[in-house]
Design goal:
Blueprint lengths: L2 E5 L3 H12 L3 E5 L11 E4 L2 E4 L5 E2 L1 H9 L12 E2 L4 E4 L5 E4 L3 H12 L3 H10 L2 H12 L10 H8 L4 H8 L4 H14 L12 H9 L1 E3 L5 H13 L3 E3 L4 E7 L2 E7 L2 E4 L2 E4 L23 E8 L8 E4 L4 E5 L8 E9 L6 H6 L9 E7 L1 H8 L12 H5 L10 E3 L10 H15 L3
Helix pairs in contact: 1-10, 1-14, 2-14, 3-4, 7-8
Length: about 425
């Protein structure tokens, strides 16, 4: 049995702790804030509740595997329901597309919205990622990457200079709307498509084939369920405990230093931005954090436009409206995100696109990029894509410091709830059973 300290009580930290405790280790979670969950938490104000970060997840099997391998199945703890449609896209020319899951449904919807032939072009683009997904799933997403064990297809993908921008320009030469559709996920996360490896487009394939899922009442329910799981597994959780650095002696990690003194450990799982820890910071100096979007959580009264779970308004800035918050009777809880050139309140920018709800706002919680980074001790969107070298420059699950591991949005395989959940699985595999 190893003494394990997990630094950070967000989704990555909680998932890593649950897995390692089930493997027989003595696990302690140290969280700087007074609450758990990090970006997978809640924002509450005057009876309204919004998800602080993600409002849905891809690959529900990742969450199901986490709960099954740490105790009771997920279905006994909380409900995951499919998001339908996946999102609405509104383009600058006024075209509107409600994108469903499923190949046949996407073909029909894209054809109907963007014109004959567009659906076929779209599904053929998505189909092209099938082999990439199969290779990377086996060698990169579901087990710690090893060049010696990886297949040639995986190694070629991770080494490619081909960018998603080039692929989309070539594939959709005649319809910018299809390019925007295919690049949506990366753009919302804050990346420039010229710097994103082409294989990252496989998330369109994943979304089409496995859908998008949410928790009724908010994704923070996943944090609540994980906190309960840690209690069942007798994991010690200490909030309000800030970790300053790793303690390294005799060439390997021996614990962490905190406000309250040193905490000894045989294994340390860093589930936070490694730039904040002096021992690890030099090893990630070639990476750059993603700047979070401008965010406004708004509580609205009265009748509002009927929008689905997520609507993307393409343009500059790109605006994203998410409607899944909870509100008092007769009210609505929306979250508005802005990416790009935004010099005004996102609700005002939304009005310029014809969605006029300013006069119905009864409460608004604005969150600047700086406020988000300060709250979470780093960017919840992880590491900026800067070409093929990003995979090598990110750490995780292992680090150059023996006994220290990395999970979360800043680790491989990257940001997003599905990737973060996978990073916790990779750490558990790398540490191994007691």
């Amino acid at each position: 049995m190893a003494r394990v300290v997990v630094v950070g009580g967000g989704y990555a930290g909680l998932a890593s702790a649950a897995r390692l405790a089930k493997l027989g280790h003595d696990v302690t979670v140290l969280e700087a804030r007074d609450t758990l969950g990090g970006a997978l938490g809640r924002i509450e104000r005057d009876g309204f509740t919004w998800d602080a970060g993600p409002t849905h997840t891809l690959l529900p099997a990742v969450a199901r595997d986490l709960f099954r391998k740490s105790g009771r199945p997920l279905e006994r703890e909380l409900e995951l329901v499919p998001v339908d449609p996946l999102r609405r896209h509104r383009f600058e020319d006024g075209t509107e597309l409600d994108l469903p899951a499923g190949r046949a449904d996407q073909l029909a919807a894209v054809d109907a919205a963007l014109g004959p032939g567009a659906g076929t072009a779209w599904v053929e683009h998505v189909d092209a990622f099938a082999d990439d997904w199969a290779a990377l799933r086996r060698d990169y997403f579901e087990r710690p990457y090893s060049r010696d064990l990886a297949g040639d297809h995986t190694k070629a993908l991770l080494a490619t200079r081909l960018t998603l921008h080039k692929v989309l320009r070539r594939t959709f030469r005649k319809d910018e709307r299809l390019r925007l559709l295919a690049g949506t996920a990366a753009v919302i996360e804050g990346h420039a498509l010229r710097d994103v490896p082409a294989w990252v487009g496989l998330w369109s394939y994943v979304e089409q084939n496995f859908g998008s899922w949410t928790v009724p009442g908010g994704m923070a329910g996943l944090t609540d369920a994980l906190a309960a799981r840690l209690a069942t597994r007798r994991v010690q959780v200490e909030t309000g405990t800030r970790v300053h650095d790793l303690e390294v002696r005799d060439g390997r990690v021996r614990g962490v230093s905190t406000d309250g003194g040193d905490v000894d450990a045989d294994v340390v799982v860093v589930a936070m931005d490694p730039r904040r820890l002096p021992v690890l910071a030099p090893h990630v100096r070639r990476t750059t954090p993603v700047i979070p979007p401008v965010v406004a959580h708004v509580g609205l009264e009265g009748t509002v436009p009927d929008l689905p779970h997520e609507t993307v308004f393409h343009g500059d800035p790109v605006l994203v409206v998410r409607t899944g918050g909870t509100a008092p009777a007769g009210h609505h809880a929306w979250t508005v995100l802005a990416r790009g050139r935004i010099s005004e309140d996102p609700v005002t920018a939304l009005a310029r696109l014809g969605v006029r709800v300013r006069d119905q706002v009864v409460v608004q919680v604005d969150r600047s990029p700086l406020e988000q980074v300060s709250t979470y001790g780093g960017s919840p969107y992880g590491v900026l894509w800067q070409g093929r070298g990003t995979v090598a420059h990110r750490l995780g699950p292992r680090t150059p410091v023996p006994g220290a591991y990395l999970a979360g949005a800043n680790a491989n395989p990257g940001a997003g709830l599905a990737n973060v959940g996978l990073s916790a699985s990779l750490v558990a595999q790398a540490v191994g059973p007691a």
